[in-house]
Amino acid sequence: MKAAIINQFGSPKAFQIKDIEKPSYEKNQLLVKVKTVSINPIDWKQRKGNHKLILGSPFPIVLGYDICGIVEEVGEEIKQFKKGDSVFGVLDNKYGGALAEYAVGHEKCFAHKPGKINNEQAAAFPMVALTSLQALRDKANLQSGQTVLINGASGGVGHIAVQIAKLLGAKVIAVASTQSKEFVSQFNPDMYIDYKKQDVLKINQKVDVFFDVVGNSSFLKTKHLLNSGGVYVNTLPRPKILLHKLIQLFTKGKKVKTLLMKHNSEDIKLIAKWITEEKLDIKIDKTFSLEQISQAHEYAQQGHSKGKNIVVIGN
Ligand SMILES: NC(=O)c1ccc[n+]([C@@H]2O[C@H](COP(=O)([O-])OP(=O)(O)OC[C@H]3O[C@@H](n4cnc5c(N)ncnc54)[C@H](OP(=O)(O)O)[C@@H]3O)[C@@H](O)[C@H]2O)c1
Questions:
Q1: 236 versus 207: which is more confidently predicted?
Q2: What's the pTM?
């Protein structure tokens, strides 16, 4: 099968398009014929080698986690899917394996693709929607009527987090650049802060949740903005997290949390249900072919995408 592989960590130029063996699947896995893949920051971080101490260097590596495709084969223990089903989800292999004609993942990674969206949108949703849901609902325990600030509201995670926060009944303060104001306004945040014009740490407003999607702030820097019992949640483990956990003991119940997305069948099904009910919308920034994977990574890693970037593999 055709795949975008890397044989060394490095720049976007590290990609090569090669013929490699189709992956084999186990009794609790699906083999999926890939139609579309979306790019997440974890993909270009792993391409650079940022996770090699934990995941090793099993070259050739096929990167990519978010996919939409058609079930080609199912393992004997698979209950919810059959050959020919249209699915979307986040792969759970080391380094993913999505940027190829075929990919494998366990049953909990997938849900049936909602009919209302196209293949590009379906590949765009899974990781950012699961991250937003689990950060706001599970880590921050965001309640109806509370106020959440979303730092980085125009990116893949951010623009979905704005919508999920509103679905949970929260008031939303969205933070992004001047260039992103019109884009983010589509999702009706209650307030917009342009970080190029205003220092978000100096706003005259308290929040119950500070969702630091970009990860350029910290519990220490934001705790004065949190109401009593408020939560600072980010998506990147920080070296000073233990110190910050200690400091939280002296902050009237304020908390610091880090979200690492988990594969969860019920959560991906909930995302599919919200999409079907037209409660969630996703925006595609740019679309690339597999042969353009180097350009796709180059663009995505600049960190100013408006929504998601897609690689189309099959049709
Ligand atoms: N832990 C997990 O499980 C998990 C899961 C998913 C993602 N993540 C992490 O979450 C982060 C965001 O992911 P993403 O997919 O949303 O990335 P993305 O699509 O590249 O979006 C980044 C966004 O950040 C905004 N931004 C850049 N500088 C900013 C600043 N100084 N203040 C406020 N906003 C700023 C940009 O908006 P402007 O263009 O308007 O500047 C851009 O839209 C990444 O680090 C990723 O690795 C973690």
A1: 207
A2: 0.97
